[in-house]
Design goal:
Elements: H1 12-26, H2 30-34, H3 43-58, H4 60-70, H5 77-91, H6 99-114, H7 117-133, H8 146-152, H9 157-167, H10 169-179, E1 185-189, E2 201-202, E3 208-211, H11 216-225, E4 228-230, H12 236-242, E5 249-253, H13 259-268, E6 272-277, H14 283-290, E7 297-302, H15 309-315, E8 322-328, H16 343-346, H17 351-367, E9 370-380, H18 389-398, E10 402-410, H19 412-415, E11 420-427
Helix pairs in contact: 1-3, 1-5, 3-5, 4-5, 5-6, 5-7, 6-7, 8-9, 9-10, 17-18
């Protein structure tokens, strides 16, 4: 079993290799993996480490395929991690003829420290061959088969085949390219008392700004004060469709980590937000986000929506029915794979049957908490029709007291932000 290399401050490469070794061994969620870094490992060193780790995971399929053709028997995880990090560096290498040679030399020296001199000789031979293959490697042609697309763009072949059937060749290519690009840091400005900081770059979505590289030190204090919240513009769609009205009570189900609850609170200005989710590891993050809600009354309820949520709400002195309810259900994450780079490797083909069943049950449970004449928004961060329109159509077939008023589905290759879907349902 791989062990974490305890990085010295600033040793981003070794820290990344240690985290990659552990990911190759255990396939832990990458956001939880990054939390294993020491608290003092911050700033540019942490950013570089994350860039390398995310890059390896994002391009894992392409890297692993290349290594599989060069190495008959996979080495230890520590050595394998050195090879993967070096391979990612070669993928993003510039046209500078000397850069691949420097990457080879650096990988060999690190292998001596993190593995052994004998394994360093293997690293030397393999990375030299990778340096001939990876830099400047051209993508497959426009009519390439699913397997070729899957390898180059590092996605499971079954997922690429599914997308080709659902979206066609052009859209699938656009989605694959989008997922393989590095996401910019986007912040939503929340401070009503002053305009956004001048160094933030406006986007086409009102209130959302791109954070320029090198400004993290400026972002930190704004996050602490609550002036900004890091959030993709795709998250706004469900809240805009719900249309929170000042003074009303809004129920946010499956609320953790709380980005949409906070967006609802900011839209209300006055009123109440009741956020409900399971008592799991994300509750602390939800509590932290709700603490920044400003003048809006907020309540956090830890409950299983598939249990007895109405009774638990009453136990907390809260209503059991609401004029506005949002449920953002757990899903495949197929719309947010640019941010969640490991989601494609955790996803299984059977999930597209399992998820809609769970989503349908959650939507039905949410419907019981909507007041007569009230609004219910069902949302996902998936681009898959089975998790979106399929779930809503099935729900409407069994719940005649609800009608679909409006829907919006955003796809990254068209809308240029995370994929998301939202459906506004009205109770009679």
């Amino acid at each position: 079993m791989a062990k974490i290399v305890k990085p010295s401050l600033g040793d981003a490469w070794s820290a990344a290799a240690g985290l990659v070794a552990r990911w190759l061994d255990r396939r832990e969620r990458i956001d939880l993996l990054m939390e294993l870094l020491p608290a003092g490992f911050a700033g540019a060193g942490r950013a570089r480490c994350q860039h390398l780790v995310f890059g390896v995971v994002r391009h894992f399929g392409r890297i692993d395929a290349a290594l599989g053709r060069l190495v008959a028997h996979p080495p230890r995880f520590a050595t394998r991690a050195v090879l993967h990090v070096a391979a990612f560096e070669l993928i993003e290498a510039s046209a500078d003829a000397g850069q691949p040679a420097r990457i080879v030399h650096h990988a060999v020296e690190r292998a001596k420290e993190l593995a052994s001199p004998a394994e360093a000789r293997l690293v030397n031979a393999v990375v030299r061959r990778l340096a001939e293959i990876l830099p400047g490697q051209r993508p497959p042609g426009p009519i390439a088969p699913a397997e070729a697309l899957a390898e180059y763009f590092s996605h499971p072949p079954w997922l690429v085949r599914r997308w080709l059937l659902a979206f066609g060749a052009g859209a699938t290519r656009g989605l694959l390219e989008w997922n393989q690009s590095t996401a910019p840091l986007i912040a939503r400005w929340r401070d009503r008392s002053r305009p956004a900081a001048e160094w933030l770059r406006p986007t086409e979505w009102g209130g959302f700004y791109t954070v320029p590289p090198g400004r993290w030190a400026d972002v930190g204090p704004l996050l602490e004060s609550g002036s900004v919240y890091l959030q993709d513009p795709g998250t706004r769609l469900a809240v805009e469709l719900l249309g929170p009205r000042g003074g009303e009570a809004v129920l946010d189900l499956c609320a953790a980590p709380g980005g949409k609850s906070l967006l609802i609170a900011d839209a209300l200005v006055t009123g109440r937000v009741v956020s409900v989710d399971l008592p799991d590891a994300r509750i602390d993050r939800l509590k932290e986000n709700l603490s920044r809600a400003g003048g809006v009354d907020v309540a956090l309820v830890q409950a299983d929506l598939l249990g007895r949520p109405a009774a638990i709400l009453r136990e907390h002195g809260l209503p059991a029915e609401y004029p506005a309810v949002l449920i953002d259900v757990p899903c495949s994450n197929t719309g947010v794979m640019r941010h969640r780079v490991d989601a494609k490797w955790r996803l299984q083909e059977g999930d597209f049957a399992r998820h809609p069943r769970q989503q349908g049950a959650l939507l039905a449970a949410a419907a019981r908490l909507v007041a007569p004449g009230g609004r219910l928004v069902y949302s996902t961060c998936s681009v898959d029709p089975a998790e979106n329109a399929g779930v809503v159509e099935s729900f409407l077939g069994r719940h005649r007291g609800f009608a679909l008023e409006k829907s919006v589905v955003a796809v990254p290759w068209v809308d240029r932000h995370d994929g998301a879907a939202a459906f506004l349902l009205r109770r009679a």
